[in-house]
Protein backbone atom coordinates (compact mmCIF):
# COMPACT_ATOMS: atom_id res chain seq x y z
CA UNK A 1 0.00 0.00 0.00
CA UNK A 2 1.36 3.38 -1.03
CA UNK A 3 1.13 6.26 1.49
CA UNK A 4 0.75 9.79 0.15
CA UNK A 5 0.82 13.08 2.04
CA UNK A 6 -1.64 15.66 0.72
CA UNK A 7 -2.51 19.28 1.49
CA UNK A 8 -5.77 19.25 3.43
CA UNK A 9 -7.03 22.40 1.67
CA UNK A 10 -6.93 20.53 -1.66
CA UNK A 11 -9.25 17.92 -0.13
CA UNK A 12 -11.82 20.59 0.68
CA UNK A 13 -10.88 21.20 4.32
CA UNK A 14 -11.45 24.81 5.34
CA UNK A 15 -7.92 25.47 6.55
CA UNK A 16 -6.81 28.08 4.01
CA UNK A 17 -5.66 31.45 5.38
CA UNK A 18 -9.03 33.08 4.58
CA UNK A 19 -11.05 30.26 6.15
CA UNK A 20 -11.86 28.65 2.81
CA UNK A 21 -10.28 25.80 0.92
CA UNK A 22 -8.66 24.97 -2.41
CA UNK A 23 -10.83 21.93 -3.15
CA UNK A 24 -9.47 20.11 -6.17
CA UNK A 25 -11.95 17.69 -7.70
CA UNK A 26 -9.26 16.00 -9.83
CA UNK A 27 -7.37 15.18 -6.64
CA UNK A 28 -10.50 13.89 -4.92
CA UNK A 29 -11.29 11.72 -7.97
CA UNK A 30 -7.71 10.42 -7.95
CA UNK A 31 -7.95 9.62 -4.25
CA UNK A 32 -11.19 7.74 -4.87
CA UNK A 33 -9.65 5.80 -7.76
CA UNK A 34 -6.73 4.78 -5.55
CA UNK A 35 -8.83 3.23 -2.78
CA UNK A 36 -7.24 -0.06 -1.80
CA UNK A 37 -3.97 0.92 -3.47
CA UNK A 38 -3.01 4.05 -1.55
CA UNK A 39 -3.76 5.80 1.71
CA UNK A 40 -3.80 9.58 1.81
CA UNK A 41 -2.72 11.56 4.86
CA UNK A 42 -4.07 15.11 4.95
CA UNK A 43 -1.99 17.84 6.55
CA UNK A 44 -2.17 21.59 6.93
CA UNK A 45 1.29 22.65 8.09
CA UNK A 46 0.09 26.15 8.92
CA UNK A 47 -2.58 24.93 11.32
CA UNK A 48 -0.24 22.23 12.63
CA UNK A 49 2.29 24.95 13.40
CA UNK A 50 -0.21 26.78 15.59
CA UNK A 51 -1.75 29.35 13.26
CA UNK A 52 -5.49 29.96 13.45
CA UNK A 53 -7.99 29.79 10.62
CA UNK A 54 -8.76 32.30 9.32
CA UNK A 55 -5.44 34.12 9.64
CA UNK A 56 -3.68 36.96 7.81
CA UNK A 57 -2.14 35.84 4.51
CA UNK A 58 1.58 35.10 4.68
CA UNK A 59 4.43 35.05 2.17
CA UNK A 60 8.13 34.19 2.25
CA UNK A 61 10.39 37.21 1.78
CA UNK A 62 12.94 36.57 -0.95
CA UNK A 63 15.81 38.39 0.77
CA UNK A 64 15.86 36.42 4.03
CA UNK A 65 13.39 33.48 3.69
CA UNK A 66 11.40 34.77 6.67
CA UNK A 67 7.63 34.24 6.58
CA UNK A 68 5.73 37.44 7.28
CA UNK A 69 2.00 38.06 7.22
CA UNK A 70 0.06 41.03 5.86
CA UNK A 71 0.13 42.61 9.34
CA UNK A 72 3.95 42.56 9.34
CA UNK A 73 4.17 39.77 11.93
CA UNK A 74 6.99 37.24 11.48
CA UNK A 75 5.39 33.77 11.57
CA UNK A 76 8.46 31.84 10.44
CA UNK A 77 8.55 29.82 13.66
CA UNK A 78 4.97 28.59 13.16
CA UNK A 79 5.66 27.69 9.53
CA UNK A 80 8.82 25.79 10.45
CA UNK A 81 7.06 23.97 13.31
CA UNK A 82 4.26 22.98 10.93
CA UNK A 83 6.79 21.75 8.38
CA UNK A 84 8.43 19.57 11.04
CA UNK A 85 5.07 18.13 12.08
CA UNK A 86 4.08 17.43 8.46
CA UNK A 87 7.40 15.62 8.01
CA UNK A 88 6.68 13.64 11.17
CA UNK A 89 3.35 12.48 9.69
CA UNK A 90 5.07 11.56 6.43
CA UNK A 91 7.71 9.54 8.26
CA UNK A 92 5.16 7.87 10.54
CA UNK A 93 3.27 6.48 7.56
CA UNK A 94 6.25 5.98 5.25
CA UNK A 95 5.02 8.47 2.67
CA UNK A 96 7.17 8.61 -0.45
CA UNK A 97 5.05 11.21 -2.26
CA UNK A 98 3.36 14.48 -1.27
CA UNK A 99 0.75 16.29 -3.37
CA UNK A 100 0.79 19.87 -2.13
CA UNK A 101 -0.82 23.25 -2.83
CA UNK A 102 1.17 25.21 -5.34
CA UNK A 103 2.51 28.70 -4.50
CA UNK A 104 1.78 28.28 -0.78
CA UNK A 105 4.41 29.55 1.69
CA UNK A 106 4.11 26.12 3.33
CA UNK A 107 3.43 23.74 0.48
CA UNK A 108 4.57 25.47 -2.72
CA UNK A 109 7.06 23.39 -4.68
CA UNK A 110 7.53 25.14 -8.05
CA UNK A 111 7.37 28.78 -7.18
CA UNK A 112 6.03 30.86 -4.31
CA UNK A 113 4.82 34.41 -3.86
CA UNK A 114 7.73 36.81 -3.39
CA UNK A 115 6.89 38.30 0.02
CA UNK A 116 5.64 41.65 -1.25
CA UNK A 117 1.95 40.66 -1.44
CA UNK A 118 1.90 41.83 -5.05
CA UNK A 119 0.98 38.38 -6.47
CA UNK A 120 4.45 38.08 -8.03
CA UNK A 121 5.67 34.49 -8.19
CA UNK A 122 9.36 33.68 -7.84
CA UNK A 123 11.37 30.49 -7.89
CA UNK A 124 11.35 28.81 -4.51
CA UNK A 125 9.66 26.36 -2.22
CA UNK A 126 7.41 26.62 0.79
CA UNK A 127 8.77 25.65 4.21
CA UNK A 128 7.07 22.22 4.37
CA UNK A 129 7.80 21.33 0.75
CA UNK A 130 11.46 22.22 1.23
CA UNK A 131 11.77 20.03 4.35
CA UNK A 132 9.95 17.09 2.78
CA UNK A 133 12.20 17.20 -0.29
CA UNK A 134 15.31 17.44 1.90
CA UNK A 135 14.15 14.23 3.57
CA UNK A 136 13.74 12.29 0.33
CA UNK A 137 10.01 12.68 -0.21
CA UNK A 138 8.91 13.45 -3.76
CA UNK A 139 6.80 16.62 -3.76
CA UNK A 140 4.50 17.63 -6.58
CA UNK A 141 1.92 20.36 -6.97
CA UNK A 142 -1.73 19.72 -7.72
CA UNK A 143 -1.25 20.58 -11.41
CA UNK A 144 1.22 17.69 -11.79
CA UNK A 145 -1.08 14.92 -10.62
CA UNK A 146 -1.45 13.51 -14.13
CA UNK A 147 2.23 12.56 -13.96
CA UNK A 148 1.75 10.34 -10.91
CA UNK A 149 1.73 6.65 -11.68
CA UNK A 150 1.85 4.28 -8.72
Q: Overview of this structure, please?
A:
This protein has 150 residues and is an alpha/beta fold. Strand 1 (2-7), helix 1 (25-33) and strand 2 (38-43) form a beta-alpha-beta unit. It has a four-stranded parallel β-sheet, with helices on one face. A two-stranded antiparallel sheet has the order 3-4. The chain has a two-stranded antiparallel ribbon with strand order 6-7. 26% of the residues lie in helices and 20% in strands. It contains four helices and eight strands.
Shape: globular
Radius of gyration: 14 Å
The residue fraction in helices comes out at 25-40%
Count the E strands. 8
Largest sheet descriptor: 4 strands, parallel
Please list the strands of the largest sheet in the order they lie side by side. 2-1-5-8
State the end-to-end distance: 10 Å
Mean pLDDT: 96
Instruction: Sketch the topology as an H/E string, one letter per element.
Output: EHEHEEHEEEHE
Number of DSSP helical runs: 4
Structural class: alpha/beta
Give the percentage of residues in beta strands.
15-25%
Low-pLDDT runs: none
Key phrases:
150 residues; alpha/beta; four-stranded parallel beta sheet; two-stranded antiparallel sheet; 4 helices; 8 strands; 26% helix; globular
Overview in brief:
This protein is of the alpha/beta class and 150 residues long. It has four helices and eight strands; from the N terminus they run βαβαββαβββαβ.
Amino acid sequence: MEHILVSACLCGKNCKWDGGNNKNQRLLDYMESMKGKAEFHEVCPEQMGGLSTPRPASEIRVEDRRVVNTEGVDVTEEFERGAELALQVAKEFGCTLAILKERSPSCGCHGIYDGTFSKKIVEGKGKAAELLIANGIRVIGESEMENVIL
